[in-house]
Amino acid sequence: MKEKKVFVHIQILTCILILIAISLVLSGCRGDRNTELAGRVYELEAGSNADPAVEPAEIREIRKELNRWENELNDAITAGRNTGRYYKTLGLKFLDYKMYGPAKESFSHSLEFSPESGRLYYYRAVALSRLALTRQDPQLRMAEMNLVEQDYRRAIAVEPKFSTPYYSLAILYIYELKRSFEAEPYLKKYVSIERSDSKGQLLYAQLLEDMGKLESAMDHYNKVLSLSSTEEEKEQARVYIQRIKEKKW
């Protein structure tokens, strides 16, 4: 019985020592992290006036403040993340209810917290494009469509593997901005990512045909025939293939 109690005490002591060791390691990591951050804060504040003679003392003082602010800083970062998520969610809800102006503003607010999110640029473009379509003033409509173009291009630049903006930008060029040939590289990229999208293949084939690239257009119309699950798309592709054959003859 005595041996069992001793064994239990040893286990408890071992657990306590492990917890102390973990605490020391975490404390050391925090100290190292705050030392590095303190150095950056010092450099930011002092700029070109940094004095190597006083730098270590200044950094120590800044590090003490950072240690005191540790919880507040972490809380502020968490609050920022949560605020960004709130505006993302609000933007999506506004879109669901066709409230396009507030949706655009919500995505803009969220971009302040996540400026490297290609999807936020995409959704802001979607909201603004739908808002622009309601405008009676053609100049205002065109100005907003130009902003939509910028956001689609930003979405592509930030997140190049996200395929949807390529297709949306192509649609914008073809149907709204009336600059159809500028859509070609974006549709080409889109169908290279979404190889099984028959709708994208059909639109790309039509554009290639309009550009006089008949052989390439024929190839993509044939892809529509093999990929599409709708008879309507297949019939369109057959008609266009026949049209190309007649042009070539």
Provide keyphrases for this structure.
11 helices; mainly alpha; Serine Threonine Protein Phosphatase 5, Tetratricopeptide repeat
Description:
The chain has 249 residues and is mainly alpha-helical. Among the domains are: 84-162, Alpha Horseshoe (Serine Threonine Protein Phosphatase 5, Tetratricopeptide repeat), CATH 1.25.40; 183-249, Serine Threonine Protein Phosphatase 5, Tetratricopeptide repeat (Alpha Horseshoe). The chain contains eleven helices and no strands. Helix 7 (164-176) runs antiparallel to helix 8 (184-193) and helix 8 (184-193) packs antiparallel against helix 9. The radius of gyration is 30 Å and the shape is elongated.
CATH class of the domain at 84-162: Mainly Alpha
Percent of residues in β-strands: under 5%
Low-pLDDT stretches are 21-31
Q: What is the fold-level CATH name, i.e. the topology of the domain at 84-162?
A: Serine Threonine Protein Phosphatase 5, Tetratricopeptide repeat
CATH homologous superfamily designation of the domain at 84-162: Tetratricopeptide repeat domain
- Class from secondary-structure proportions: mainly alpha
The portion of residues assigned to helices is over 70%
How much is the average pLDDT? 89
Report the radius of gyration as a whole number of Å.
Answer: 30 Å
Distance between the termini: 102 Å
How many helices? The count is: 11
How many strand segments? 0
Secondary-structure element order, as H and E? HHHHHHHHHHH
Biggest beta sheet summary: none
Dominant shape: elongated
Query: At CATH's second level, what is the architecture of the domain at 84-162?
Result: Alpha Horseshoe
